[in-house]
Amino acid sequence: MRLLLFLFLFPLISFSQTFLLGKIEISGNKKTHSKIILRELPFKEGDTLYLDKIPQQLKKAKENLLNTSLFNFAETDTFGTTTNTINISIKVVERWYLWPIPIFEQATRNFNSWLYERGFDKINYGLFLAQLNFRGRNELLRFVFRRGFREQYGLAYSVPGIDKKQKLGFEIKYLYYRQKKLAYITTNNKPDYFFTNTYNYQNSSASISFTLRPEIYNRHNIEMSYNNHFINDTLFEANQYFLGNFNKETQYIFVSYNFTRDKRNSNYYPLKGYYLSATVSKTGLGMLKNETDFFTINTKASKYFQFSKRFFFSTAGQAEYSNLKTYSYLFSRAFGYKNFTKGMELYVIDGNGFGLCNNSLRYQLVKPHTKQIKKIKAEKFTKFHYAFYTSFNFDAGYVLNQTEINMPYSNEFLYGYGVGIDFVTYYDIVFRFEFSVNKFGETGIFLHFNAPF
Fold first, then answer.
1. What angle separates helix 2-9 from helix 54-66, to the nearest 10 degrees?
2. What DSSP designation does 291 have?
3. For the chain, the helix, strand and coil percentages under 3-state DSSP, each to the nearest 5
4. CB count in 10 Å sphere of residue 52
5. In the chain, where are the structural domains located?
6. Contact between residue 339 and residue 354 where contact means Cβ atoms under 8 Å apart
7. How far apart, in whole angstroms, are the C-alpha atoms of residue 300 and residue 318?
8. Structure pTM?
9. Cα separations (Å) of 181 from 122, 164, 201, 335?
10. Between the N and C ends of the chain, which has fewer C-beta atoms within 10 Å?
């Protein structure tokens, strides 16, 4: 590495020595505009860099570029160094950006519930089309045509930088759902399903959001949307609490503000750094007929430690509360969907608030390796990286239920623990196989497709 050669040639230079950053040379970006890459760097041409900080800044620049999900690989280095100036090179390998993806997927709340409950009739099929890095500006254009258990039709367009400094972005989105068969009530911590030959549930939403990114690691997001939910007479008779307001239809304006600070080394499998997020949202502004009305607060925080070359530890906490007074099957979801303690993937626990703490001690079984598939000529696929980790995990949680509906296992302490094997590879792919034990002594093997938290 040229930076190491530079340090070898100037051993007597004080580490407080400063250098003027003369030039940033970018290569490999066949589609991506250079300004998109420059926006992610912790330095710019003309900056003054300290010698002892340069390796750390180059590493951070690489991590930032990979976290955009625009590149499979990124390399940073120095060149043309003199006694008072330094130049930096950035080399990237771009990903494949156009994805016409056939949809064939399970349609329940999570993969494990679909597998263990044998919900093989709950399948979606269709086509998802995503154009990433649209126009080379990191814009995202998406279309979805989904049939089957849960029909969905929609489109979305997002632009991360509409101003010269690329600090302000926006997204517009429209989605429409409808279902003949759907989960309509929770019984014994499991969803029961309702089915007729007509569409029992329909939902449409149109939204616009704005994102302010004043610097690399902080984001502010404001969203506003119009939402409409409708159920037919038959479903209403089966569960008058489905929408929560004893009506067959509800509509509302949804407004939210979110702040995020993300200093993780990777946003899809982090090992070092930290993450903070806070969201305040209001469902219903008192302007529409049959309006749902409540507010929600959600906070998240996670910290990642590296103890040695191969040992890592992470801990994360999340809390959410809404002032929803009347139980609603649609709006009272706490555990059993995206959130749960280890070994509780199959349980549904409804409520209007929850707390969750996740902890994981990981050991790097196989260090990150890069392999080249010689028979594949396309640069975007010919090289791939992979790594394996084993982990010991412990979670603790609590579901707060202040509604009039009695929900088993709410308002009590929950926990679970287990061991797992994680496979991490390119295109942000993570497979996690876990053997878990929950509070009740029940065991199971569970498969997940993302990082622990």
1. 170
2. B
3. 10, 55, 35
4. 12
5. 2-94, 98-448
6. yes
7. 4
8. 0.81
9. 9, 48, 9, 22
10. N
Q: Which residues pair with 347 in a beta bridge?
A: none
- 225 DSSP β-pair partners: 207, 254
Closest CA to 161 of 226, 216, 123: 216
Tokens (6 digits) for 225: 């949307």
Largest CA distance in the chain: 83
Q: Spell 323-340 as b/e; 16+ CB within 10 A means b.
A: ebebbbbbbbbbbbeebb
Q: Which CATH superfamily is domain 2-94 in?
A: membrane protein fhac (3.10.20.310)
Q: What single letter denotes the amino acid at residue 255?
A: V
Continuous segment of H or E residues that includes residue 149: none
Q: What is the DSSP letter of 439?
A: T
SS3 call for 453: coil
Q: What angle do CA 427, 150, 154 make, to 5 degrees?
A: 65
Tokens of residue 415, six digits: 């926990």
CA separation for the pair 81, 261 (Å, rounded): 34
In one letter, which amino acid is 72? N
C-beta neighbour count of 82 within 10 angstroms: 10
**Range list of H helices, 51-164:** 54-66, 111-116
Quote the CA–CA distance of 362 and 215 in Å, as a whole number. Answer: 31
Whether 104 contacts 40, CB under 8 Å: no
**Which CATH topology does 98-448 take?**
Porin (2.40.160)
For residue 103, give every residue at least 6 positions away whose Cβ sits within 8 Å of its Cβ, in sequence order, or none.
124, 125, 126, 127, 128, 144, 146
Question: Which tokens belong to 8?
Answer: 């070898």
* Structure confidence by residue, pLDDT tens digits, 303-328: 999 999 999 999 999 999 999 878 89
pLDDT tens per residue, range 196-252: 999 999 999 999 999 999 988 999 999 999 999 999 999 999 999 999 877 899 999
